[in-house]
Amino acid sequence: MVQSAAADEVFHALSNPTRRKVLEHLSVGPATVSELAAPFDMQLPSFVQHLSVLERSRLVRSKKRGRVRTYEIAPERFKVVEDWLTARRRLWEARLDRFDQHVEHLKEKESRS
């Protein structure tokens, strides 16, 4: 259940294109709020809301030095997404393998008749 709640938070944070662009920016390295906000045409309080969502989901973390807050990626939280996607991929790979075996069985059966 805890894992599910974490996945919900992370997928909610990733569901917004602005937040995904912020993560792309931060994948290059840490950045201040003003550096992150510069490419977006929105008021700073609205932009800071996006940063808050990212920080609550623990995809990013921030440090405040003086009046400047700097954000950076928190890579360990991406494991939640990776684990969830890996579980789905394994499930579908197993289903496709069984389907492939069934089709091969039908081909063999048809070639014998």
Task: Please sum up the structure shown.
The protein is an alpha+beta fold and 113 residues long. 67% of the residues lie in helices and 12% in strands.
Structure in words:
By secondary structure, the chain is an alpha+beta fold. It has five helices and three strands; from the N terminus they run ααβααββα. The protein has helices at 2-14, 17-26, 33-37, 44-56, 78-112, and strands spanning 31-32, 60-65, 68-73. Helix 1 (2-14) packs antiparallel against helix 4 (44-56) and helix 1 (2-14) crosses helix 5 (78-112). The protein is elongated and about 80 Å long. The mean pLDDT is 94.
Q: What number is the mean pLDDT? A: 94
**Unreliable runs, pLDDT <50, ≥5 residues?**
none
Distance between the termini: 52 Å
**Number of β-strand runs:** 3
Strand content: 5-15%
Give the ordered list of helices and strands. HHEHHEEH
Please tell me what the overall shape is. Answer: elongated
Please summarize the sheet with the most strands: 3 strands, antiparallel
Strand order of the largest sheet: 1-3-2
What class would the helix/strand composition place it in? alpha+beta
Percentage of residues in helical conformation: 55-70%
Question: Given the structure, what is the number of helices?
Answer: 5
Q: What is the gyration radius calculated from CA atoms?
A: 22 Å
